[in-house]
Amino acid sequence: MACIARIEAWACRSPIAEPVATSFGIMRNRPAVFVRVEDDDGAFGWGEVFANWPAAGAEHRVNLLADDVAPLVLGQAADDPAALFQKLEDQLYIRALQCGEFGPFRQVVAGIDQALWDMRARREAVAVHVMLGASPVIRVPAYASGIHIDAADRVIPEARDTGFRAFKVKVGFSPDEAARVRALMDGLNSGEQLALDANQGWDTEKAKTFLDAVADLPLMWMEEPIRADMPASDWHRLAGRVPLAGGENIAGFADFSARLGEGVLSFVQPDIAKWGGFSGCLAVGRAALSAGATYCPHFLGAGIGLRASAELLATVGGPGLLEVDVNPNPLRDAFGTVRDSIEDGHWRLGPGPGLGVSQLPEAVAKCITHRREVLA
Prior knowledge:
Blueprint: E1 4-21, E2 26-39, E3 44-49, H1 57-73, H2 81-99, H3 102-124, H4 128-131, E4 139-148, H5 152-162, E5 166-170, H6 177-186, E6 193-197, H7 204-214, E7 222-223, H8 232-238, E8 244-246, H9 253-262, E9 267-268, H10 277-290, E10 294-295, H11 303-316, E11 322-325, H12 330-333, H13 338-341, E12 342-343, E13 346-348, H14 362-365, E14 368-375
Helix pairs in contact: 1-3, 2-3, 3-10, 6-7, 7-8, 9-10, 10-11
């Protein structure tokens, strides 16, 4: 039985000409954390750890992986990622509680889980979604994301030209946005769709006022109009106007099950790099479909996590769409540009094996700010 013998992690930062703004903060560069796990037979796999926030988070997560998590992973069997995922969730709980850093620990474990499933699929010489039991597919539906409402008049036509047929616009910046959303809807072509994302930017009353103003529009969804941790009663006050979406800021089977049980989310959006990896998010995606919701993976990172997210959507199935950030990101495009991957509203999956990544591209290597390696 092969055991995990080596873990490497890289923090990378790529400069960008135009910052990426949300209702709660601005990204002034594009960070990423990549993880490579190798067993004592020389097999390896890749994963990605969420590192967008806080601004200094990428380097911290590399150190957290090397100093706190890797000692619990090295020497463990490499053939059952789901079992190791649950073991790490249990073992790291008190550490995360002690320092109040549940997010970073969960994100590191998510990256390791992706890498272990990638390793298994590479051993079997198949794509990850096939190794996880899905029928082979060559593409999944996708939508253009990360579009600031102030830039939407320019970016939506650009995304349309790239090949997208669905778009998600960030709102929550100014009081006149309902009228601007209405104008964007009027500018869509036949068959195109529009979703909105407030990034938890409103209180319940502001969210209700906005949703009342756009309730007659055929929007795909309204994502995180209020904080993800607000009680069900607040979410229920917003229901019935526009389909509600959320999940990127929910973590753990219990919390996802509770939110699904409340029946307020029409679209459930766990992020494979923030919590769960394949092991956790696959279970949540299947539970969402069983509950009558649509699984739409959240992702706003670099190239390895995007590939993993696409493989996960191909595994879960259903009518969901892959989130593809259309803001400039060299750490994503080094693994394959968006324009080369999108066709007629669909994202083309790589041929594998696994996630189809053998090494970090040269363009990514030039952006490394920190690296750690830990051996058994």
